[in-house]
């Protein structure tokens, strides 16, 4: 990915991180940064900076109900996706992520899930169920960050789906309101590995190849030398497909 494409990726994600109610640290309003401010923020090139909030009128909470601190992602390879509890398409996306996670055991990476329906999903009982769905595919609680957007209105913190949807539109490189079915990988400097991410809600037959692409991006972001595909790769993918299919439709 060339420097120009890197810059575009960071600008889009910067807009995502501060859209609507979410601002960058030190910004007293909850509004989008100006072009000049956004350009200045790009110099940091770090995902944790792009996700920072001012803490006064805008914040993110995680699945434990605690205020999210972007520093936990510093110098970390991060897999990012979006969704909401009970979403039918999300089952397919999680199945692709699960296939990738199985191949990434022992590797150091974080997973960020941008929740698109915080009014419902940030409730304590739903947060626990939602987090368990991701832990059940092999993610450890300490590497999983499900983020819910909140803004402060009339002295109280309220969930903000509007800001979440603006973020979603930026993340998926689209101006329509919709739900991205792609999974994105960011390197240790916060740069997106590919502009469009990996489409991850396809057929079960396509799932192993999609998972392989995510794994390759994570390994590249980790600085691991790309290895030639082993001779048993087709058989390995076929076995993985049989395993995923045996889990039934409830797992995507």
Description:
By secondary structure, this protein is α/β, with parallel strands linked by helices. The chain contains 9 helices and 7 strands. Strands 1, 2, 3, 4, 5, 6 and 7 form a 7-stranded mixed beta sheet that branches. Helix 1 crosses helix 2, helix 1 packs antiparallel against helix 7 and helix 4 crosses helix 8. The longest helix has 16 residues. The protein is globular. It starts with a helix and ends in a 6-residue tail after the last helix. 43% of the residues are buried. The N terminus is likely disordered.
Task: Outline the secondary-structure elements.
Layout lengths: L2 H16 L16 H8 L4 H4 L7 E4 L16 E6 L4 H16 L6 E6 L2 H4 L2 H12 L8 E10 L2 E4 L1 H11 L10 E5 L11 E2 L7 H15 L11 H14 L6
Parallel strand pairs: 2-3, 3-4
Antiparallel strand pairs: 1-4, 2-6, 4-5, 6-7
